[in-house]
Amino acid sequence: MSAPTRKIIHIDMDAFYASVEQRDNSDLRGRPVAVGGARERGVVAAASYEARQFGVRSAMPGATARRLCPELLFVSPRFEVYKQVSAQIRQIFAEYTPLIEPLSLDEAYLDVTENLKGIDTATQIAREIRAKIWEQTQLTASAGISYNKFLAKLASDFRKPNGQYVVPPGKGLAFVEGLQVGQFHGIGPVTATRLNQLGIFTGADLREQPEAFLVQHFGKAGRYYHAIARAEDHRPVQPDRLRKSVGSETTFAQDLSDFADLLAGVEPALEDVWAWCERSGGRGRTLTLKVKYGDFQQITRSRSSTAVFDSKAVLLRVCRELLEGLFPLPKGVRLLGVSLSNLNTAERAAGQQLTLRF
């Protein structure tokens, strides 16, 4: 028998860091808020929806954000609080399925094909999860529901904030073909521009291209573009995958060249990595800093240790030292990433199955 159609939910918290700050400080509610960038030079880690109306976005230099929105209120990040809230939300997910794949503190995939409560539809499960998140945290979440991860993640953006959207089986191709390629997860602004220069603007345009043509222009990523143009994504939700490394990265709205800006800019990626360490118990012996300059030249700098890096403070110190080694910078930096490898823990292989509930 063929495998049943998957039921995948992508949950994405709405302006998570900024929403937590507004929840905890009534003076911030209904006002444009940016988390981070509190110094004269700094980077926005997150922006409230009120701030986004002025064009303020995450990874934007604080000075630019201030020009766009003179009334913008800056608050320092409280990552320990965000991690506590994230753990609380994950407990809600676990009431419905053990198949949870966190992507960061504020988003995750859930496979609810077979769920712990025997609920017939993923739509109802998403609705219940969002209601419980609000009840327990006073924060809103958006959800995308579909039969694969790519479509579910796309769908979660369609009713933001505080909404959900379904792409049912048989509708994926029509959903994808009407989108601009820049809306696709995995296609950033630069790649979208390159696609546009090749006459590819929509999902329908992308689907017309042979795989060989896309590989010629985009390397192995071309195979991914060929698949998603057909609404194909066979990746399972993997809660217990064997990892060789864990990493996160941030692309900045404008190239950065000041050391303080870069140090602030690397912190969200470092927080994502350390959150995984705490959640999994895993630690690594090699830290790698990824740097992409404004002209898209990419370099990496690594530091290895005989013992695992056992605290966030140590990781931050190593990141600082690796950043210092880049100066004087030859050009502005558009992206910073942090990854840990040589991990000391092998997570259980994915594959746990639930008993069917009739």
Protein topology:
Blueprint: E1 8-13, H1 16-24, E2 33-36, E3 44-47, H2 49-52, H3 62-68, E4 73-75, H4 79-94, E5 100-104, E6 107-111, H5 122-137, E7 141-146, H6 149-155, E8 164-166, H7 172-177, H8 189-197, H9 203-207, H10 211-218, H11 221-228, E9 245-256, H12 259-280, E10 284-293, E11 298-304, H13 312-324, E12 333-343
Helix pairs in contact: 4-5, 10-11, 12-13
Provide structural commentary.
The protein is of the alpha+beta class. Among the domains are: 16-78, MutS, DNA mismatch repair protein, domain I (3-Layer(aba) Sandwich), CATH 3.40.1170; 172-228, Orthogonal Bundle (DNA polymerase, domain 1); 245-343, 2-Layer Sandwich (Dna Ligase, domain 1), CATH 3.30.1490. It has 13 helices and 12 strands. It has helices spanning 16-24, 49-52, 62-68, 79-94, 122-137, 149-155, 172-177, 189-197, 203-207, 211-218, 221-228, 259-280, 312-324; strands spanning 8-13, 33-36, 44-47, 73-75, 100-104, 107-111, 141-146, 164-166, 245-256, 284-293, 298-304, 333-343. It has a 5-stranded mixed β-sheet with strand order 5-6-1-7-8. The chain has a 4-stranded antiparallel β-sheet with strand order 9-12-10-11, covered by helices on one side. Helix 12 (259-280) runs antiparallel to helix 13. It is globular. The protein starts with 7 loop residues before the first strand and ends in a 15-residue tail after the last strand. The model is unreliable at 346-358 (pLDDT under 50).
Task: Supply database-style keywords.
single chain; 358 residues; alpha+beta; MutS, DNA mismatch repair protein, domain I; DNA polymerase, domain 1; Dna Ligase, domain 1; five-stranded mixed beta sheet; 13 helices; DNA_pol_Y-fam_little_finger
